[in-house]
Specification:
Elements (H helix, E strand, L loop, with lengths): L12 H15 L1 H22 L12 H32 L2 H6 L5 H34 L10 H4 L1 H15 L8 H15 L11 H7 L3 H14 L4 H29 L2
Helix pairs in contact: 1-5, 2-3, 2-5, 3-5, 3-7, 3-10, 5-7, 5-11, 7-11, 10-11
């Protein structure tokens, strides 16, 4: 039986894995980025303007203004999730990419770290583009009230790492593509609806607020909402600490689970 090391085995090979994914994506950049280019405008116009006409938040705030931080958190989450859940499973089981890579001097830890870094990159690309769209539409929709919103780009590294790690951790235990229905319905959907992106979190039932505190997306939305509005609060530091802690936990979990999957 092969021993599984307890300490990380990370080298420049992680960058090579990231580079491999980057090059594969750039070869198909037209199909990869066409949806990203159109979807934010469609969502903002459909939800923010059309649906927003029927939503009264009762706080002197237009719904499109309330929605903006949620979209800034949601789109990067989906980018990291699809890349490191479905995408990683395809590379693991269908294409045999992982086994081919670990047959070289690159370790399993390098592979997973590189995959997580690539998922984070996709997340940052999406987040940056959403922010650009918000600035473009800002003269008409007034979605951004502070230049502090630009801090969402570097801060976005943390949720990118977290959502990528969560996704790979699940991909490491999935035995069929159909199993991702559980991942989407039990993990992604609750974050989507109870992360405070679409509805004021403090107006939800008490039990939802308590459960929602453990939802990663809720903390991301809180941070972005404060940055976009220019309202910095101490609770944002607590949210950053929460995200950092769980990022570390899920990164370690993803590496250990994938070691078991690949090392026989």
């Amino acid at each position: 039986m092969t021993a599984i090391p307890l300490t990380p085995d990370i080298s420049s090979g992680a960058y090579r894995v990231w580079q491999r994914n980057r090059d594969a994506t750039l070869r198909n950049w037209k199909t990869e980025f066409l949806g990203i280019a159109i979807e934010p405008f469609a969502i903002i116009l459909a939800l923010g303007l059309a649906l927003g006409r029927f939503v009264d938040l009762g706080r002197g705030e237009n719904y499109v203004e309330f929605l903006a931080p949620g979209l800034l958190a949601l789109f990067p989450m989906f980018a990291a999730t699809f890349e490191c859940a479905w995408g990683s499973y395809v590379r693991l089981e269908m294409q045999g990419t992982y086994e081919s890579i670990v047959a070289t001097p690159i370790s399993v830890d390098d592979v997973i770290t590189g995959e997580i870094l690539w998922g984070t990159t996709r997340s940052l690309v999406n987040g940056t583009y959403i922010l650009i769209v918000m600035f473009i539409l800002n003269p008409w929709l007034h979605m951004v009230d502070s230049p502090l919103a630009l801090l969402a780009i570097p801060i976005g590294i943390l949720p990118g790492l977290l959502f990528s790690s969560i996704s790979i951790a699940f991909a490491s235990i999935a035995r069929a593509m159909s199993h991702f229905a559980y991942f989407f319905n039990l993990i992604i959907n609750p974050m989507f609806w109870f992360g405070g992106a679409f509805f004021p979190f403090d107006e939800m039932p008490q039990w939802v607020q308590i459960a929602g505190w453990f939802v990663p997306l809720k903390h991301v939305v809180d941070i972005y909402r404060g940055l976009i509005a220019g309202n910095l609060e101490w609770s944002m530091l607590a949210s950053l600490a929460w995200l950092a802690t769980f990022t570390l936990v899920f990164y370690v979990l993803a590496v250990k689970l994938m070691r078991r999957r690949l090392i026989h």
